[in-house]
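Example is below:
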Amino acid sequence: MLDMFVEIGWDCYQSIQASAGMDLGKVKEKYGKKMALWGGVPVELLVRGTKEEVEAAAEKTMAQGNTHDIDLWTLRTIRYKNSHCSKEVA
């Protein structure tokens, strides 16, 4: 589907999720110069994870991306009680 999104002119894709079978490194390699990528840190961790788990996932994602074309942040998908953890890690 990402090929179709590039073809119709999308310049950003949100929803890079390893638990859905996506490999951020492969997606970045193939599409990173064609569109910005948003995601990579599992939403499950942002919702239920510890600070340490979120930090580890963010570091892994940044190591795979290591450029500014991958946005790690999420919007309304995390509960308030875990938002402090995501803000500290960011």
